[in-house]
Amino acid sequence: MADRAEYARKGIARGRSLVVLQYADGIVFVGENPSRALHKFSEIYDRIGFAAAGKYNEYENLRIGGVRYADLRGYTYDRDDVTARGLANVYAQTLGTIFSSAGEKPYEVELVVAEVGATAAGDQIYRLPHDGSIVDEHGSVAVGGNAEQISNYLDQRHQDGMTLSEALKLAVQALSSQANGTDKAIPAERLEVAVLDRTRSQQRKFKRIRGRQLSRLLEAEVPAAAQVDAVLNDEAPEDDAE
Prior knowledge:
Layout: H1 2-13, E1 18-23, E2 26-32, E3 41-45, E4 48-54, H2 56-76, H3 84-100, E5 109-115, E6 124-128, E7 135-137, E8 140-143, H4 147-157, H5 164-176, E9 191-197, E10 206-209, H6 211-219, H7 225-232
Antiparallel strand pairs: 1-2, 1-8, 2-9, 3-4, 4-5, 5-6, 6-7, 9-10
Helix pairs in contact: 4-5
C-alpha cells in the first residue's frame, strides 16, 4: 500500500498546481494551464464546481461520472438534493476502491469539489487525495505538484472578505512562488480561471473568466464591488456549459 501511495503521489507531483480560494462573493479556481481545450476546472451542477490535478484522462472520467450522478439525483429527487458533500462521498468511494484494489493501479489524481452557498458561511470545499480520504477545507486549498509550499503561502496571506481581484492576484502570486525564493512569471494567457459566483441571477453559478475580463481583474488596483461586477458582466462571451 505504501508503494501504491508513493506511485500516486509522484504522478500527481508531475502535474501543475492549482488553487481554490474563497472570496467575498463566492469561490475562485485558478491554475496554470496552457491548453484551451483540456480544462482543470468544470461545472458539475448549479452551485458545484470541480477541480483536479494529475492525469487528465483519469480525472476526466471522474468528472463525467460526477455529472451523471448529479443529473440523476437532481432529476429523481430535487435539485437542492445535489450537494458537494454527497458528490465528495461518491468520489471518495470510487478513489478508495481503486486505491485498495490489487487488480489495477491507483489513480494519479487529486480532486477538489466546491459548492457556493447563499452566504460565505455556507460555502463548502472538499479535497480528495488519491486514496479516497476527504479533507474539509476552509478559506483556501492547493493541490498538485507544489501544493505544500503554495498552501503555506496562502495560509499566511489569505483573508476573509477579499474581492475577486484580490483573491485572483493572491492565487497567481502563490502559483508563481518558487522554493528558492524567486518568482516565475505566469502570463494571463496561460491561466485558467473560473468562479462560483453567488451574486449571479442565474441558477447556475459557474462562470469561466478569460481574455479581457481576466486581464482587467489582474490589472485592477483595488477595485470597488461595482467595478468587479462590471468585469464579471463584460460583454465577452462566456462558457458556462460543459
